[in-house]
Write a structure and sequence with these properties.
heterotrimer; A alpha/beta (338); B mainly alpha (354); C alpha+beta (671); B: mainly alpha; MetI-like fold; 4 strands; 71% helix; globular; C: 671 residues; Dipeptide-binding Protein, domain 1; five-stranded mixed β-sheet; 23 strands
């Protein structure tokens, strides 16, 4: 398991520092190793993309940071999440509630199911405002209007008292974003926000977030399985597989010069608009591993075309390829994009 | 919404017509002699008695004539006056109750209503509370206790539970007697000085400023209400619990928590409105069930509600009375369902009635 | 406490109460001392252990919470009507006899002797056909009106003219117009076609109607000036006083009755009031009598409440030691259908008396502190403390009831359209022919094969005596030492061998005996026959089938049952009231007794009712009983002795067979 990575700046100067975060789920079928000792840092104003397949632990790690994991069956075994100098994992529930929504906001994948169908959008936004910013009803309503405007919802005044089902998919997600931003959080975690939307709307949302980020100086963690989206907006990328970060680095390095077979595979799966017609899409053979009863050694080994004997017995650590760019693979030097 | 309500109300007479026709048809399976059994307690002393009964009550007439008579009444050959008939507001005479059906309903229905209204509160409120407690503490000891509590209540035969309570609190302790009110209170209630505004003794006694009667009525209601509550809690509890469990799994609950709301607020404001929706239907059914009469509780506590009267009528094939109950119940059912629908529309903005 | 804790506590409370409730009432302690005593037994000195009778305990004073109200927890409050001319149920009798008075009444506990009530004295003509009653003066009805002879005459006339074959009026029409006349409509149309047909009667020939009414007026006459009422019977009628003493002899106030909408007394209009049903009679729920109690309220299905009449006329008790005015102010008869609840009421002391079904006596007996056995000599009870002398209840036991159930053979079973109860319908071992029971040997066999001891033990909890003949104990003509059958399998076998020239013995038979579900007595009789007959030989098969009440009734009506078990509750305590239905009346007809047999019975029955002295009657009924035995037309079962439980603070109870177990409330007291 990788240990804490120093990306050059002293600890206290990072906005967020995750160290060796490990989360497991104790279920009837066994212990699920969802997040296996991941570490990274995040600085103000940065946009971090976290990519990987379903089940790789990207959402779970975010929920772990927010301490929204259901305990039982879940358990954050160990690790530290240092936010503005404080370890979130050690805060009391009450203190944590002051963080959630106010300092760190999270928005989710499907705005249809993530918004309460029986409460108005206005209510769901003003709720946070009243809670965290101590506004009264009138003030919070005014602010909510501003927010809806800001996210580009037309005729915001009329729509404030509408219910989620009365919005289109894109509008709903915008409203969700408005909700997330309402208390000016330092970090916005977006867990697959565009996955449930169609392509044109996706672009709009991505655009919106970028604009807002510039305007408000927000830090964003963007979780997705869609590499294309990440390419367009992230500064740095963490590639996760089977609960671990297997490659991390600035976006252009990840895309231009990946050194992990999995990243390679992911990129290879991307349809390349510049590619020639008739070239078959490469898809990674095999299945992601069962997170219960993980084998020793590299979790990707069963599917890896570059694997050697060592890969089956020893878990590779994240090691530097060049400053800021690390990969966890025994054969990383061999792995090259073709 | 008004259109919707009107259309639903228009369905009532159709429904009632259908059901009453069905009952009439079912009864035709029996021969006139068998149907005359209602009027005879034991083997008649005289051979001709049964013929007389059949003639008197028209038991051998064709079914559609009997139904018509029930509906529209009969014409007295001497005076030419029409008498009786449901559509003219005459419910007939109840053989099993030894009084006109209307009188019997007028006396017994308020009793059942009072019991039902009082019982609904603990049944539903208690069940909801326990269900929420169970769901929120899913799989923890409190949840297990709640589930067991509910199962025991559901499985416990009502007459056994009722008799146990009776033995303990009445026979041994003398606190809560059976019946509806004590003799001394009854004398006052029947007297002209007492004004019966609602026929519900608890409310009327308060309106008449007779707190002693109020307390007496309450004393008599406590045990039936506890018995009913304990037995019916389970249903509300189960539905609430599973509905809440389902709701708590939803994404919007995670969103709410992610906003930093306290768990209490999350449950109260975000989970309950969604989780309790199935309970609305259940609540409606519970009220209907309690109003249709809870025969065994009424019998054990000697509480004069419509349940025992209806059961008596049914067992003795007292058609007239049974039909009156059918009408009453049918009406209650339709109204209850209508109210449930309206409540749904009120709570869930996705539901629109048209 | 938080909400969670509240609910946990409540839950624990509930469970705790369930556990406690199961423990029930504390058992009374019984202290038995044993003493060893030396005794001389046949010359030897023997040591005998004797259980000493506990020292007589000073009786605990039993006081009720409210001595002015008497509460009875009855099995049901389900009377049909309070109209005395209509009511034919013992529950109704119970109330009517307390609200109204009759011309004569019983001498306290003696159901065969009559003392003045509304009549001060009377004369009966030599030929027994004319009764003249002097009507008491100064008697007031509950509404304040005065009693006059006209009221008496009106009451009886109205009852007879109202008719109805399922009312008790036949008890008047027979003495008034002749045996066999069961309804006034038969005076208009002899064939009985108009019985219970009000429309038919209204449409009948006005002359015939008028004539019928005038006949009634002839029979029942009054003279206000002389203060008398006269009855001119069609024949001497021994049970007449007994008939008048019953609830249908209750006297109404004519003006009040007319006000309520009853017959106006005019012969031109009686047909408009004929055949009114128990529910449409205007006197269904209203009463106005002269009796010791008044009706305060009647809530059908729940309770009846009576209040004492302070102006009751009685100044002489009906028997030595009797009372002349009610001491208990209010009587409440509640309908409590659930035994557990009645039991709870007894324990709580809320019920002063309660109906205790036979199967529950074991539950109640531990609460009995005083045990009173019936004494047939004194017509009273001898009481003694029980092993639990502080028990709150008192038990009266052993007085013979006035109902009997018999198993009656049908001589000609109706097989039209198929009859499932007779199997194949042939004597082929797989059924019985429709005239199976017309052979006396079959009937005797069934009698010898009936185990009375088992029946009394199973169905009547051992509290009964086998009955001799069609009458019941305690009346003229009944002889407990008369001829009766007893369980004798050897004789049963002999008779079976003789039946149908041996065909029965050779082929066996199969039949079904039906009972209405819930009726344990009938079921037990069927079970006994099944067991005893198959003991003789398995080819004698009696199958038992429980039918729902309507089906049972229909089967009886259609005469399909080969054997039916039915009971009779006497209307009056007179041998005629037993002889008539069983030998020539209802039951005889249902049994389809052959005409020659009925004719034989008829002679004796008529003689019995017309006889003017007890000796004459006794002789007639003795002959009748012998015939009943010889012809074995039925299996006469047993008359149960009853039980009556009351709280010990109640006093002065006496038993009169007619008033059954609730007695006349005015004679009771309560501390």
């Amino acid at each position: 398991m990788a240990v804490g990575i120093d990306l050059g700046k002293p600890t206290s100067q990072h906005l967020l520092e995750v160290r060796d975060l490990t989360t497991r789920f104790y279920t009837e079928d066994g212990v699920v190793h969802a997040v296996n000792g991941i570490s990274y840092t995040l600085d103000e104003g940065e946009t971090l993309g976290v990519v990987g397949e379903s089940g790789c632990g990207k959402s779970v790690h975010a929920l772990s940071m927010m301490r929204l994991i259901p305990i039982p069956p879940g358990k954050i075994e160990k690790g530290e999440v240092i936010f503005k100098g404080r370890d979130l994992l050690k805060l009391s529930e009450e203190e944590m509630r002051h963080i959630r929504g106010a300092e760190i906001a999270m928005i989710f994948q499907d705005p249809m199911t993530s918004l309460n169908p029986v409460l108005t959008i206005g209510f769901q936004i003003t709720e946070s405002l009243q809670l965290h910013q101590g506004m009264d009803k009138a003030q919070s309503r005014e602010r909510a209007l501003e927010l809806l405007d800001m996210v580009g919802i037309p005729e915001a005044a009329l729509r404030l008292d509408d219910y989620p089902h009365q919005f289109s998919g894109g509008m709903r997600q915008r409203a969700m974003i408005a909700m997330g931003l309402s208390c000016n959080p330092s970090i916005l975690i977006a867990d697959e926000p565009t996955t449930a939307l169609d392509v044109t709307i996706q672009a709009q949302i991505v655009d919106l977030v970028k604009r807002l980020q510039d305007k408000l100086g927000m830090t964003v963690i963007w979780i997705t399985h869609d590499l294309g989206v990440v390419a367009g907006m992230a500064d740095r990328v963490n590639v996760m597989y089977a609960g671990s970060i297997i490659e991390t680095g600035p976006v252009k390095y990840i895309y231009g010069d990946p050194h992990h077979p999995y990243t390679l595979g992911l990129l290879g799966s991307l349809p390349n608009p510049e590619g020639s017609m008739g070239v078959r899409l490469y898809s990674i053979p095999g299945e992601p591993p069962d997170l219960v009863g993980m084998p020793k050694g590299c979790p990707f080994a069963p599917r890896c075309t570059f694997k050697v004997e060592r890969c089956l017995h020893e878990m590779p650590m994240l090691e530097e390829i060049e400053p800021g760019h690390l990969a966890a693979c025994w054969e990383k030097d061999r792995v090259r994009r073709v | 919404m008004v259109n919707y309500i009107i259309r639903r109300l228009l369905m009532v007479p159709l429904l009632l017509f259908g059901v009453t026709v069905l009952i009439f048809l079912m009864l035709q399976v029996l021969s006139p002699v068998e149907r005359s059994a209602l009027y005879v307690r034991d083997i008649p002393r005289n051979e001709r008695v049964l013929e007389g009964i059949i003639k008197r009550y028209g038991l051998d007439q064709p079914v559609h004539i009997q139904y018509w008579k029930w509906l529209m009444g009969t014409i007295d050959p001497q005076t030419g006056d029409r008498q009786g008939g449901i559509l003219r507001g005459e419910f007939g005479y109840s053989r099993t109750a030894s009084q006109p059906v209307a009188e019997m309903l007028a006396r017994r229905f308020p009793a059942s209503l009072e019991l039902a209204l009082l019982a609904v509160i603990p049944v539903i409120a208690g069940g909801i509370l326990l269900g929420v407690v169970g769901a929120v503490n899913h799989n923890k000891p409190l949840d297990q206790f709640v589930r067991i509590f509910g199962i025991v209540g559901w499985s416990f035969p009502d007459f056994v539970f009722g008799l146990l309570l009776l033995m303990l609190f009445y026979a041994n302790l003398g606190w809560f007697p059976p019946g509806r009110i004590s003799d001394w209170a009854n004398q006052i209630v029947q007297s002209p000085e007492f004004h019966n505004y609602t026929q519900l003794i608890t409310i009327d006694s308060l309106l008449n400023l007779r707190f002693d009667i109020f307390w007496d009525a309450l004393r008599h209601l406590i045990m039936p209400v506890i018995t009913l509550a304990y037995l019916w809690w389970a249903l509300t509890l189960r539905v609430t619990r599973s509905s809440m469990l389902e709701t708590l799994r939803q994404d919007y609950i995670t969103t709410a928590r992610a906003k930093g709301l306290s768990e209490r607020t999350v449950i109260r404001r975000h989970a309950l409105p969604n989780g309790l929706m199935p309970v609305i239907t259940l609540g409606g059914n519970t009220v209907v069930g309690l109003l249709s009469g809870v025969v065994i509780v009424e019998t054990v506590y000697n509480y004069p509600g419509i349940g025992s009267a209806a059961a008596d009528a049914a067992v003795n094939l007292d058609v007239i009375t049974v039909l009156a109950f059918v009408l009453l119940n049918g009406f209650i059912l339709v109204m209850a369902n209508l109210i449930v629908d309206i409540l749904y529309a009120y709570i869930d903005p996705r539901v629109r009635l048209d | 406490m938080s909400k969670k804790t509240w609910w946990s506590v409540l839950g624990l409370l509930v469970i705790a109460s369930m556990v406690l409730g199961a423990c029930g009432a504390p058992e009374p302690e019984v202290v038995v001392e044993t003493v060893v005593v030396t005794k001389e037994v046949q010359g030897e000195t023997v040591e005998v252990v004797v259980t000493a009778t506990p020292e007589p305990v000073v009786p605990v004073e039993f006081k009720s919470a409210d001595p002015s109200t008497f509460v009875v927890a009855a099995i049901s409050e389900g009377i049909d009507t309070l109209d005395p001319a209509w009511n034919y149920e013992s529950d109704g009798d119970d109330i009517i006899l307390n609200l109204y008075d009759q011309l004569v009444t019983y001498e306290g506990p003696n159901a065969s002797k009559f003392v003045p009530a509304l009549a001060t004295d009377w004369t009966i003509s030599e030929d027994g056909m004319t009764y003249v009653f002097n009507i008491r003066e100064g008697v007031k009805f509950h509404n304040g009106a005065d009693l006059t002879p006209e009221d008496v005459a009106y009451t009886i006339q109205r009852g007879v003219l109202q008719g109805g074959t399922w009312s008790p009026q036949w008890l008047f029409t027979e003495p008034f117009f002749g045996t066999g006349i069961y309804d006034i409509a038969e005076l208009v149309d002899e064939t009985g076609a108009l019985d219970d047909d009000p429309d038919g009667v209204k449409a009948a020939d006005p002359e015939a109607l008028m004539a019928a009414c005038e006949r009634v007026m002839d029979v029942v006459q009054y003279d206000d000036a002389a203060g008398t009422v006269t009855f001119n019977l069609s024949q001497s009628w021994a049970p007449f006083l007994a008939t008048l003493a019953q609830s249908w002899g209750s006297i109404l106030d004519k003006d009040w009755a007319i006000e309520q909408g009853a017959w106006d007394g005019d012969c031109a209009t009686w047909q408009n009031y004929y055949g009114i049903t128990s529910e449409t009679t205007p006197l269904r729920d209203k009463t106005n009598g002269t009796g010791p109690y008044m009706l305060e309220s009647w809530t059908p299905g729940e309770e009846k409440v009576l209040v004492a009449n302070p102006d009751w006329w009685r100044t002489e008790p009906t028997f030595e030691g009797g009372k002349t005015a009610p001491t208990i102010e209010r009587i409440v008869v509640k309908g409590v259908s659930e035994w557990g609840t009645r039991y709870a009421m007894l324990q709580a002391g809320d019920a002063d008396g309660a109906d205790v079904p036979r199967e529950n006596i074991a539950q109640v007996d531990p609460m009995v502190g005083e045990w009173c056995e019936y004494n047939a000599e004194t017509l009273g009870f001898d009481c003694a403390p029980t092993e639990n002398p502080n028990g709150p209840l008192r038990l009266f036991r052993g007085a013979p009831a006035t109902t009997r159930t018999d198993a009656m053979f049908v001589f000609d079973i109706n097989a039209e359209g198929g009859n499932p109860y007779i199997g194949s319908g042939e004597l082929d071992g797989n059924g019985i022919p429709t005239d199976f029971f017309s052979d006396v040997h079959v009937r005797k066999a069934f009698n010898y094969c009936f185990d009375w001891d088992a029946f009394i033990a199973d169905a009547l909890a051992g509290e009964a005596i086998q009955n001799v003949g069609p009458l019941i104990p305690g009346m003229v003509g009944y002889d407990q030492n008369g001829p009766m059958y007893s369980y004798d399998p050897a004789m049963c076998e002999e008779e079976l061998k003789l039946a149908w020239d041996g065909q029965v013995w050779e082929n066996g038979f199969r039949m079904q005996v039906a009972y209405n579900t819930g009726n344990v007595t009938r079921q037990t009789v069927a079970q006994i026959l099944q067991a005893t007959l198959s003991d003789i030989d398995p080819k004698f098969q009696v199958e038992i089938i429980g039918l729902p009440w309507p089906s049972f009734l229909a089967a009886i009506r259609a005469s399909r049952l080969p054997l039916y078990i039915s009971g009779w509750q006497e209307d009056l305590h007179d041998p005629h009231n037993w002889a008539q239905p069983f030998m020539i009346g209802t039951y005889a007809a249902r049994q389809v007794l052959p005409d020659w047999m009925v004719a034989e019975f008829q002679e004796l029955v008529n003689a019995g009712v017309a006889a003017t002295t007890d000796e004459e009657r006794a002789e007639v009924y003795k002959q009748l009983t012998q015939l009943d035995y010889d012809y074995a037309i039925a299996i006469r079962l047993a008359v149960a002795t009853g039980r009556h439980y009351e709280q010990r603070w109640v006093g002065d109870y006496y038993y009169n067979a007619i008033n059954a177990w609730t007695g006349r409330y005015y004679s009771m007291s309560k501390q």
